[in-house]
Amino acid sequence: MTEYLASDSLLFGHYQEIGVNYEEAPREWSGWINFDGNGTMYVFGYGSLTKPGSVAAELNRAVNRDEMIPAELRGWRRAWNVGSDKYSHPERTIYKPDGSVFDGVVAVLGLVQGAANAHCNGAVFSVSSEDLAKLDARERNYRRIDVTQAVTFRGKPDDCVVFVYVPRVEAMERLERALRGPNRRPTAIRKAYVDQTRAGFSLMGERELRQFDADPIPNIDIHDLRFEYKASGIRDVDDRTDGPEPQAAVAVTAPHPGPGRNGAT
């Protein structure tokens, strides 16, 4: 039996060419234009990431109103299907208007993949690799996927890539357990989050806001919950308001003024 010696069997520092035809031009890799930022990159926002102030605060750079381009995502629909709590965000404490700690689950927006004719309106904004790293850290309840072919917007470049953040399974299960599991927990939607999101769609126009308002909010109470953070570089966009944090004294349980809403919204 012949002894195997790497020094005799491998050529270190060399490569082997397989199937190379020097008579033809090299074939371009279709993904090259989007590799490591070679093409223009966008993120499709469908919730609080439709508001320029929220995006600017999260990316720590100026984002003008005209940089938020109205867009549509086909094959997906918006849903209130993501839950966050002290376990998903241990650096964050949630307070009720009376100053007591809210030890439940906060519901926020996500997406559900639907039929081919399903659609979700929102906005796209251009990002750098550094911007994506910040958003990846913030969107811990979501995973980033490429939806370039499913997104349409005015002036869309041929060489662009469009990302969107879709809910992780564990984030959806967290909310589902809180609402319908054997050990149900208090569940709420944060009023500041709804207000921020509606403000973002309002800036894009009445038609965009009507489309957002047509998506029903589930029968979950909306409360003026307040977030406080320990020393951490990660914060939620809906907590980075353009002005002071609202300090309402009562919980909101009446329907939100937006049309098409049901339940306590």
Give the termini separation.
Answer: 77 Å
What low-confidence regions span 5 or more consecutive residues with pLDDT below 50? 240-265
Structural class: alpha/beta
User: Radius of gyration in whole Å, from Cα?
Assistant: 23 Å
What is the overall pLDDT average? 81
How many β-strands, per DSSP?
A: 12
Q: State the major sheet.
A: 6 strands, mixed
Number of helices: 6
Strand portion: 25-35%
Order of helices and strands: HEHEEEEEHEEEHEHHEE
Give the gist of this structure.
By secondary structure, this protein is α/β, with parallel strands linked by helices. It has helices at residues 6-9, 52-59, 129-138, 169-180, 191-204, 206-213; strands at 41-45, 69-74, 76-84, 92-95, 105-113, 119-127, 142-146, 151-153, 161-167, 187-190, 222-223, 226-229. The radius of gyration is 23 Å and the shape is globular.
Describe the secondary structure blueprint for this structure.
Blueprint lengths: L5 H4 L31 E5 L6 H8 L9 E6 L1 E9 L7 E4 L9 E9 L5 E9 L1 H10 L3 E5 L4 E3 L7 E7 L1 H12 L6 E4 H14 L1 H8 L8 E2 L2 E4 L36
Parallel strand pairs: 1-9, 5-10, 10-11
Antiparallel strand pairs: 1-6, 2-6, 2-8, 3-5, 4-12, 7-9
